[in-house]
Write a structure and sequence with these properties.
Chain lengths: ~110, ~120
Amino acid sequence: DAKTTQPNSMESNEEEPVHLPCNHSTISGTDYIHWYRQLPSQGPEYVIHGLTSNVNNRMASLAIAEDRKSSTLILHRATLRDAAVYYCILRDVEIAGANSKLTFGKGITLSVRP
Amino acid sequence: DAGVTQSPTHLIKTRGQQVTLRCSPKSGHDTVSWYQQALGQGPQFIFQYYEEEERQRGNFPDRFSGHQFPNYSSELNVNALLLGDSALYLCASSSNLQGWEDTEAFFGQGTRLTVV
């Protein structure tokens, strides 16, 4: 499985934008970039995914580098509820289509200051 | 929509015993995956079921087995429990897609298993 590298932790202030980086230098052409987050005492929650182009949804934006070796999850205005562990995951759809397993690392712990 | 539901939420078992955990997928989903999450770690893939068959399996011993029913719900069974099996067990559901599209997985709240 292609691997991702994330910082261990990051702090942000409430109502400010947050940029969470992820490096994936060994990404293959059939790897989708996924982000999930896990709030305390809950199961992981899907945030966003993309292949090549930048993606936006109601939760966040995903900026993908042109060479696809890195990506950034952008939370436009952090709230206290956004404090969580954020996982950057590569999923190879060539292996088992959209149902390939998700390989989680340790993720990045985001703290949000009031 | 109830989302993914898991039962029970908490469970305490004795070493050597057997346990069964249950999962009902999100409405419209036909694929169920199971993950184990130890304290302070990310979830680790156990296996996935589709059309009542195990389709993929992670690096877990045969003590871990599963089943999927015709209504797409699933069970995870663990035999001969070890202290190291204490963890949060997560169920995720998704829709099987063809081709090169990708989609999200929906996770349940998990079952916290403690082996004493």
